[in-house]
Specification:
This protein is α+β, with helices and mostly antiparallel strands. It has helices at residues 19-35, 40-47, 51-58, 66-76, and strands at 104-108, 113-117, 127-133, 148-155, 158-162, 165-169, 174-178, 182-185, 192-199.
Length: 203
């Protein structure tokens, strides 16, 4: 855990994160591992690191380097940007409030699906995500994950197939399903914006 010559978001110029951010980073890594039903031993084997090292990282005792974080994110299948907490105007808001301009982003407009984490961190029993599906965006292969999910359509048209049944939705509509295969598409010519709730968290 040597000092790094980096200025990536969330790190000082000497490579070490501020204390509140380090604590949140540790919590996020632990929450992501648990959401994937991975034990400390299983993840440490994937990383080629010791269980003791990973345990210290998850408790905020050891600070992972940027390269360590890249390997962690590859193993957990999340973008590294997800692990960098955005600045908060008031330290009392950390872990409680998410300001509109400070959301952590997932995906990109190029990928036709842009998601923003509305939850203040990756812990808790559920997470809230704002999902923007570009016109023509679609999930070709049905996805099945060990989660209960619900969503509200804010704007646009949105089709979702749940357990082999398609449903066409518009603004004001909502849905919920529990551990069922699903896929989706945006059949309209404008973005479809949804507020999505997932339990337990997957990001």
């Amino acid at each position: 855990m040597t000092e790094l010559a980096t200025t990536e978001a969330g790190y000082h110029v000497n490579g070490l994160p501020e204390a509140p951010k380090a604590v949140q980073l540790a919590r996020d890594i632990r929450a992501l591992r648990r959401s994937r039903n991975l034990t400390l031993t299983e993840l440490s084997l994937q990383l080629g690191r010791s269980v003791g090292w990973l345990s210290q990282v998850e408790r905020g005792i050891s600070i992972p380097s940027i390269n360590d974080l890249r390997q962690l994110c590859m193993a957990l299948e999340v973008p590294i940007s997800l692990l960098f907490a955005h600045e908060v105007a008031d330290e009392a808001e950390r872990g409680v409030v998410v300001r509109a301009g400070k959301r952590r982003q997932l995906g990109s407009t190029e990928g036709r699906l842009l998601e923003e984490l509305l939850s203040p961190d990756l812990g808790g029993e559920f997470e809230i995500v704002r999902s923007v599906f570009a016109p023509g965006a679609r999930l070709e292969k049905a996805l099945l994950r060990d989660t209960e999910e619900a969503a509200y359509v804010v704007s646009g048209k949105f089709d979702i197939e749940i357990d082999s049944a398609w449903h066409s939705l518009g603004p004001g509509d909502s849905f919920r399903f529990n551990r069922k295969p699903h896929r989706w598409r945006n059949p309209g010519d404008e973005d479809a914006v949804l507020i999505w709730v997932i339990a337990p968290p997957v990001y």
